[in-house]
C-alpha cells in the first residue's frame, strides 16, 4: 500500500524545541504513559549510562546541585527539557485518533445512500410454479420448509415430499396410512439430515431425510401439532392443546420442558438467531417471549398483547437480534415490530389483510409478508407484499391471487422465496436478490413436475 502524505508525521512538530511555544495540546491517551515522540532519547540514555560512581559520604555543594538540576531539566542547548514527557502532541500536527472510525462511518453513509437510491421493486411474476395437489387450505398449519441442504419439504394431504430445486428431483418421504391422521407441521433440522413432522393425531416424528426411515416418535401433546421448530438438538413443538414442549432429541427421555401459558392453541414458534430467545404466537392473540434458560420455570420475559387476532406469522430480524416481527390474523391485519429486550412495539402498520407468513431479506433491509383474506380498500389481500425496514413503507407486491398465501420459506442463500397457497401451487420468487437472466421459466408441461401424476391426486 502506498504511503499517504496525510499520514506522514512532521518531525519538527515533535522536537523538544516546540515545547517552549504556546501550543494547544490534546490528550488522546493516559497521561501517565509517556509520549516518546517528545523525548530526546539520546540525551536521556547519556544521562542514564554515563553516571559517575557515588562516594560513600558525598558532600554536595549548592553549585553541584544546581548543575545536577540543569542536567536533568535542560537539554544540551540549555533549553527546558524533561526526560519523560506526558503531554499530548499538538492538535494541528496530527490526525484525529478517530479518523478510521470517521472513514468507516462515511463509507457506511455512502453505502446506505447508494442502497436507498436503488430502484428496488417486486418481480413482475414468479420464476417457477409447481403443482402441489392436496395442499391444505388451513391457516393453522405450517407445512412448507426450505432446508439448508437446498431441499424443499412440503406436506400434501397424507404424504410428505421433498423437491430438489437443482435437479428438480421429487421424493416421497412418508405417507400416513390413516384416514384421521396427516402431517400438520414440519421443519428441517439445522444440518438438514432430519425432518421433524407434527401430526394431526398429536405425535411428533423425526424422519431421516436420506434413508426415508422413521428415527423416533416424540409424545406429549394431546391434540394437533401445528408448529415445530429446531434449536440445535432441542426440538420445540406447539399444539392446539395450548402446550409448548421442548424435546432433547439426543436423550432417551427427551421431554425437558412443558409449558401451558397460552389460553388457546399455539400457532407459531420461532427461535432467535442467537438461539437464546423463543417467541410463541397463539390463537389467543398473544405473543410470549421466553428466555431459553428460564423456560422450565414457566416464567416468560414478556407478554405482548397488541394484536386482536391469532398470531401465526413470526420472524426474527437477521441484522438486529432484538427485533421480532409479528403479523395478526383476519380481524387484526397488522404487521408489528417489537424490541424484545424492552418488550415494546417500535412500529406497526395495518395491512387490512390476514398476515399468514413473514420472511426477512438477509441482503437488503426488507421484510416480505404473505397475506390471506382482506377487507376494506386494500391491495394486500391474497398476495405477497415487500416492505422497507425500519420505515415499513411498501416497496411493492405480487398480483392479487384468488386464494390465500399461507406459507413462506427462504432458500439457503437467502435470494429466493417459496410461497404456497390455497390454490395448490408452490411459487418460487426471485424477490430478495437480483433477477437471474438464465433462470429457466416454467412451461405448461414443466409445471407439472410429477406432482400432478402423484397417486395422492
Tell me, what's the shape?
elongated
- The tally of helices reads 3
Q: Round the mean pLDDT to the nearest integer and report it.
A: 82
Radius of gyration: 33 Å
Explain this structure.
It is a single chain. This protein has about 450 residues and is mainly beta. It is about 10% helix and about 35% strand. Residues about 1-25, about 90-95 and about 435-455 have low confidence and may be disordered.
Topology:
Layout: H1 41-49, H2 62-73, H3 99-117, E1 128-131, E2 144-146, E3 152-156, E4 159-163, E5 170-175, E6 183-188, E7 194-199, E8 204-208, E9 213-218, E10 225-231, E11 234-239, E12 244-248, E13 255-259, E14 266-271, E15 277-282, E16 287-291, E17 302-304, E18 311-316, E19 323-328, E20 334-339, E21 344-350, E22 353-361, E23 366-374, E24 384-388, E25 394-397, E26 405-410, E27 417-421, E28 425-429
Antiparallel strand pairs: 1-28, 2-3, 3-4, 4-5, 6-7, 7-8, 8-9, 10-11, 11-12, 12-13, 14-15, 15-16, 16-17, 18-19, 19-20, 20-21, 22-23, 23-24, 24-25, 26-27, 27-28
Structure at a glance:
This protein has helices spanning 41-49, 62-73, 99-117; strands at 128-131, 144-146, 152-156, 159-163, 170-175, 183-188, 194-199, 204-208, 213-218, 225-231, 234-239, 244-248, 255-259, 266-271, 277-282, 287-291, 302-304, 311-316, 323-328, 334-339, 344-350, 353-361, 366-374, 384-388, 394-397, 405-410, 417-421, 425-429. By secondary structure, the protein is mainly beta.
Characteristic key phrases:
34% strand, single chain, four-stranded antiparallel sheet, 9% helix, mainly beta, 457 residues, disordered N terminus, elongated
Amino acid at each position: 500500500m502506498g504511503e499517504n502524505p496525510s499520514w506522514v508525521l512532521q518531525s519538527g512538530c515533535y522536537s523538544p524545541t516546540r515545547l517552549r511555544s504556546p501550543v494547544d495540546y490534546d490528550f488522546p491517551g493516559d497521561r501517565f504513559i509517556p509520549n516518546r515522540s517528545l523525548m530526546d532519547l539520546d540525551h536521556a540514555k547519556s544521562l542514564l549510562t554515563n553516571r559517575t560512581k557515588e562516594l560513600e559520604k558525598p558532600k554536595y555543594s549548592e553549585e553541584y546541585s544546581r548543575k545536577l538540576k540543569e542536567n536533568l531539566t535542560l537539554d544540551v542547548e540549555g533549553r527546558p527539557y524533561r526526560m519523560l514527557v506526558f503531554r499530548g502532541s499538538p492538535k494541528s500536527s496530527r490526525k484525529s485518533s478517530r479518523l478510521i472510525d470517521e472513514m468507516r462511518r462515511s463509507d457506511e453513509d455512502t453505502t446506505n445512500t447508494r442502497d436507498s437510491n436503488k430502484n428496488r421493486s417486486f418481480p413482475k411474476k414468479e420464476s417457477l410454479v409447481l403443482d402441489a395437489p392436496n395442499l391444505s387450505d388451513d391457516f393453522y398449519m405450517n407445512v412448507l420448509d426450505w432446508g439448508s441442504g437446498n431441499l424443499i419439504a412440503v406436506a400434501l394431504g397424507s404424504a410428505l415430499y421433498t423437491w430438489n430445486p437443482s435437479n428438480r428431483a421429487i421424493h416421497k418421504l412418508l405417507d400416513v396410512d390413516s384416514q384421521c391422521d396427516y402431517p400438520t407441521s414440519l421443519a428441517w433440522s439445522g444440518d438438514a439430515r432430519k425432518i421433524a413432522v407434527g401430526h394431526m393425531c398429536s405425535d411428533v416424528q423425526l424422519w431421516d431425510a436420506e434413508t426415508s426411515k422413521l428415527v423416533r416418535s416424540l409424545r406429549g401433546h394431546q391434540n394437533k401439532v401445528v408448529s415445530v421448530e429446531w434449536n440445535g438438538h432441542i426440538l420445540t413443538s406447539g399444539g392446539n392443546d395450548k402446550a409448548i414442549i421442548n424435546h432433547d432429541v439426543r436423550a432417551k427421555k427427551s421431554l425437558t420442558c412443558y409449558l401451558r401459558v397460552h389460553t388457546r392453541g399455539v400457532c407459531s414458534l420461532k427461535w432467535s438467531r442467537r438461539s437464546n430467545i423463543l417467541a410463541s404466537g397463539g390463537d389467543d392473540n398473544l405473543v410470549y417471549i421466553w428466555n431459553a434458560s428460564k423456560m422450565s420455570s414457566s416464567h416468560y420475559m414478556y407478554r405482548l398483547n397488541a394484536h386482536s387476532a391469532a398470531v401465526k406469522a413470526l420472524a426474527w430480524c437477521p441484522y438486529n437480534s432484538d427485533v421480532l416481527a409479528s403479523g395478526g390474523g383476519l380481524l387484526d391485519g397488522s404487521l408489528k415490530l417489537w424490541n424484545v429486550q424492552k418488550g415494546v412495539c417500535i412500529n406497526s402498520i395495518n395491512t387490512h389483510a390476514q398476515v399468514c407468513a413473514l420472511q426477512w431479506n438477509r441482503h437488503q433491509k426488507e421484510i416480505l409478508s404473505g397475506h390471506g383474506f382482506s377487507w376494506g380498500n386494500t391491495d394486500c389481500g391474497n398476495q405477497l407484499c415487500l416492505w422497507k425496514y425500519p420505515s415499513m413503507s411498501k416497496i411493492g407486491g405480487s398480483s392479487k391471487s384468488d386464494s390465500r398465501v399461507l406459507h413462506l420459506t427462504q432458500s439457503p442463500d437467502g435470494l429466493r422465496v417459496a410461497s404456497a397457497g390455497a390454490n395448490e401451487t408452490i411459487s418460487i420468487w426471485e424477490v430478495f436478490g437480483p433477477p437471474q437472466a438464465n433462470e429457466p421459466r416454467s412451461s405448461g408441461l414443466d409445471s407439472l413436475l410429477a406432482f400432478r401424476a402423484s397417486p395422492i391426486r
